[in-house]
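Please, structure for the following, as tokens.
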Amino acid sequence: MRPRCYTALHPFLKMRTTLRKLLGIGLVSGVLLTLFYWWVPGDDSTVDIGTRHGDTIEKLLEKTYKDILSSYPDISYHIKDNVAGHLALNMCVCETEKETIRNRLPYSNLLFPRVWAQNLQLAFLGNNEDPEGVKSRRSQEYNGFRRRTSTPSDVLIVAEANSPLQYPTQGVEVRPLKTIIIPGLGLKENPRSRHMVNLSAELGVFDVAATVDEVTVIGAGEKSMVISSPLLLSLNRQLQFVTYTNTLFHPSTADTVQFATDRHRSVFTIKVRHGIIPKLYNSRSSGEYNISALVTIATKTLLRYDKLQELIDSIREFYPTVTIVVADDNQHPRPVTGPHVEHYIMPFGKGWFAGRNLAVSQVSTKYVLWVDDDFFFTASTNLEKMVDILEKTTLDLVAGGVREVTGYTATFRHTISVDEGGDEGDCLHIRKGYHHAIEGFPNCVVADAVINFFMGRTDKVRQVGFDPRMARRGHLEFFIDGLGSLHIGSCSDVIVNHASKIRLPWTKTDNDKAYEKFRYSLTTDERKASDEVYYFKNRFKCMSAN
């Protein structure tokens, strides 16, 4: 064994090693504490939310559906004009009412109002300088709308006969009081002397759009219909022509259909609802984003005209022609003027969320950007980035970050979930963090609640709305109301600055003191109103947060 030459120095080395360990532990602890302070829990996964998922499955289902419909080609049938004439043809024609003797009677327009029609395409595009460009933008807008609003539950799925009944499990829809053919009905069983199926519903009646030889149909035009035949192929051919007509008007409901034999029973639903009317915005721009045509900036002010003017000046430095909408509930309002500035006066102290509602109600652009009146724009306030992510993804709203005077940038990312709680109400859980990153957009994630600097689709923000009972305080309430209907993102590299709130007591103006008193001095009734929103309106029995 080789001699240890450092024996005499060993105590010193041991002490130095101990110091090293202590310093290492301190350094690691400091790093961990720093990471703990800055770390926000979230999923490290990155998800593509720019396209509709399930396209491959849809194509497979579409092929299967076509194969089902193309079966039994050798079995003849006879069209029933009185039923088939009510079926939708996947096309519509606008026609005026034909001229009759009744239309020529005195006061006929009062007694028998005539149907009128207008060719909107001709009316709008007839004098347009770029009709093809308009049509292209309209098509692009509609495709984006469909991408955001359609879900896999809208796809037609037919359960092949394992029971031995074959029927659609989802994706069947009829407009109120209209008629459809029920797709995918079939029976797969061993030969019998007579094959028979029964259909029954609650909100509509059944019929057949065509008849097949050697098939008996009993109960056509009624809520219950029996179809039978000694030939299974003929029965299945007849089932391809079964129609359903909704007879009880309701703008959005579903009918439960029972499809059965003497031994087996299946149940499926038919959605009864109007089609979703799209809200498309013609921004009249192509290529690079025209922010002035796409975005309106909205804010609410009270007792802070100096801050408001700083906000407007900063916006004008980077976006000189974008429209700014100001909701103002000051007791003694002052004029707020300037190019592309709209100033709306409210009753004194009407409140924070009421002002948001007013401001958003006046927006006519595709997107609305919300900012507080004590924010101000910088070169990092890149609205083009926010528009880009909304244009290319299914997000309804995207937030940025707010840089405080200390240099810290806040994003206020939270997730929200609700657990069912029985008769006493549900449980609301709010946690710091986010769900996942967004593919193709570095620094952007998906969350449920974000900072008070966000851009949203105008129609979706209006749809959720702002509860006007939130007069002096309110933020999370909007996102709780939007849970399930708003798809929300947050990008930390789009930043607006926050004016300093640090004021020495002797430097505060009377206006500063009045604002603080009005903003932070909640009355007992206002606290009760806040509690009522959670407990009664949202039916929560408890709330947890971190």
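The chain is about 30% helix and 25% strand. Residues 1-39 have pLDDT under 50 and may be disordered.
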